[in-house]
Amino acid sequence: MAEKQMDHPNINKNIHPPFVALFYIFIALVLGRVIVTPFVMPQIARNIGLALTFIGFLFGVGAFIEFRKARTTLDPHGSVKTLVMNGIYRITRNPIYFGFLLMVIGFPLNYGHFWGFLTAPFYIVSMNQLVIEKEEAYLEKKFKEQYTAYRLRVRRWL
Known about the structure:
Layout: H1 17-34, H2 43-70, H3 95-110, H4 115-153
Helix pairs in contact: 1-3, 1-4, 2-3, 3-4
């Protein structure tokens, strides 16, 4: 009997991108509490952290709006109906994950910890390996030349 082809990315069902971001935010906050730095974070840095967190949230909102317009799923485990290339998707192929990256840096910074800068590269590698590479393989297979042209035109992160 032939195996039925699955119409979704081959992402582990236990991997949820918001929780990956929260994990690295949590690690940064714990490091900030456990490893005391000899300096106090200036208020301007905290404000920048708050701004980064807010901008990250806006990237997610922009992605949500485009997905709603296209009437396709936001679920990274689900089947997409159409390739979204408008709005925020003209700037980055992964605005939600980029928004999470800004939050991984900004949230701890807002609390006076620079550790988000150190956990951010680990977040990027984790997201690339656990989610993005699988999503891109799925989109390449499903949308073929249309996705290839989009991928060549728009960067993965920013």
